[in-house]
Amino acid sequence: AISVHGDSLTILQSPEFVSFQKGDWAISGEKIPDLVALTMGFSVQEDLSWPGLQAGPLFQRPRANVLVVVRGVDSLALPQSVASYPLENPVPFTLDSVAETIHSLFAEDTPVVLQLAPSEERLYMLGKANAVFEDLPVTLQQIRARLSQDGSVLASLPLNSLSRNAEADLLFLSEVQVLHDITALLQRHRHLAKDHSPDLYSLELSGLEELSRLYGQDSPQYRDATAILASVLQKFGEDVYGLYGNSAVVEVVTVKTFEAPLTRKSRSILESQQISNPGSPYNLAYKYNFQYAVIFNIVLWLMIALALAVIVVAYNLWNMDPGYDSIIYRMTNQKIRMD
């Protein structure tokens, strides 16, 4: 699991074949999507000149990657970490590029792609996620209704100073409930961890940011919520890591404030089939595929080889002596006719 704090990137858990080196190498926030892509074995447009991640085995890659963005906190007490790195330039980012790469490479295997931001009611699902997470509460109204049902996190969490009636407190508890429900649904569909396509999860939590704005960072509500979220994320990472057979990378990004507002148009589930073919009325081109360079080189050099072959054959035919080089015209040789 990877955890990105406001000023740091902390690796909580990762498979043995995803090698993170200990050190103080800083990484920019805008490079987090590239880091996620590289941990999953995908290529990126620009090389990530960051020594924290070492090259891994070519044929052994994680089965899943989970990124959780936590806004409104500098750091969380996540003790079981492998390595920690400073984080520079905490700008907003999304995993859209990684999701489109997975869709283009594993479209037939219908991988799970889930992007969710409960506070903004933003949801995007692709592949098997449509069937697995169809019962997942998405809107704030659905999540708050889920909190009043049996098996909600309210029965097991030490709320302390948090209230069940305050709006900001309920927003935070709703996000904790979503984490719990995702783990429960994955345990119910364990076959997802055994297929050949990698899965991608991206969650954005802003409950702590609301608590900080309402109560202040020195308030008991904020301190209790920070402690609760740290323990919940620790367990969430361990559960997902175990469900995928110790072959998952889980990232938790904790950012005090982003340097620029994140403006992103939410997409409908029904648009999931339009990733590789937009099909828009404006006659736009297909999205760039990372296999384009490979296919281009194969076609180019095959055309050059065939053109050279045609030239060589034509040259030899033009300079051929029919009497000596062709069995068809060999019978016209005077010596053969005399015999």
From TrEMBL:
It is found in: Cell projection, Dendritic spine membrane; Cytoplasmic vesicle, Autophagosome membrane; Cytoplasmic vesicle, Clathrin-coated vesicle membrane; Cytoplasmic vesicle, Secretory vesicle, Synaptic vesicle membrane. GO terms for cellular component: autophagosome membrane; clathrin-coated vesicle membrane; dendritic spine membrane; endoplasmic reticulum membrane; external side of plasma membrane; lysosomal membrane; synaptic vesicle membrane. The chain crosses the membrane at residues 292-318. Keywords: Cell membrane, Cleavage on pair of basic residues, Endoplasmic reticulum, Membrane, Receptor, Signal, Transmembrane, Transmembrane helix. The keyword Signal applies. Residues 7-256 form the Renin receptor N-terminal domain. Residues 264-339 form the Renin receptor-like C-terminal transmembrane spanning segment domain. It is a single-pass type I membrane protein. GO terms for biological process: positive regulation of Wnt signaling pathway. Its main location: membrane. Multifunctional protein which functions as a renin, prorenin cellular receptor and is involved in the assembly of the lysosomal proton-transporting V-type ATPase (V-ATPase) and the acidification of the endo-lysosomal system. May mediate renin-dependent cellular responses by activating ERK1 and ERK2. By increasing the catalytic efficiency of renin in AGT/angiotensinogen conversion to angiotensin I, may also play a role in the renin-angiotensin system (RAS). This is Renin receptor.
